[in-house]
Amino acid sequence: MNAITYCLVSTMADENAEIARGLRRRDPDLLDQLIEKYQHRLLRYLLHLTGRRELAEDFFQETWIRVLERGRQYDGRREFSAWLFAIARNLVMDSFRRKQPVSLDTVSNDEDAAPMEIPASGPTPFDSTVQNEQNQQICSGMEKIAVEYRETLALRFQEGMSLEEIANVTGAPLGTVKSRIYRGLAALEPWMKGSRL
Hints:
By secondary structure, this protein is an all-alpha fold. The protein has two domains: about 1-110, Rna Polymerase Sigma Factor, Chain: A, CATH 1.10.1740.10; about 115-195, Winged helix-like DNA-binding domain superfamily/Winged helix DNA-binding domain (Arc Repressor Mutant, subunit A, Orthogonal Bundle), CATH 1.10.10.10. It is built from nine helices and no strands.
């Protein structure tokens, strides 16, 4: 491990330890900072997982309540974002298991649900338009692929999580995570190339 990598790992470990201490104290300022830092990532993940904004917002609130209630359980040995996303995922999965005997795929592919949109960004209006069209195609594809692929791709490419962090969040073995990413990208390829609208 080189000096730069060591410093980064050491800084992250210190930050995680500080978060763990603050959660044990139920520090309201820390909770505000964590919500500010992770709100967009967490809501985006929940949108991909549920396919419905209202449902995602409900789970978003419930996740932060759980963080407050169970903050003492976070020990700081792993990345806080992985712990946070695991709480959110478990809430969603538990809810769907209790309420519906059908799969998460059938819930997220509801015809009445508004399509998820990924905001486009670019320096020019033309670039923004092209990016928006590509994002819409990929969103259409994300809605059609299996939920385990959709979840893994969202964690990897939108949330920037490592394969190990994804394994921690989903509870799947590392080999399964790799397989889901490979298969998810293969299933998404027609939409990425724009051949399916």
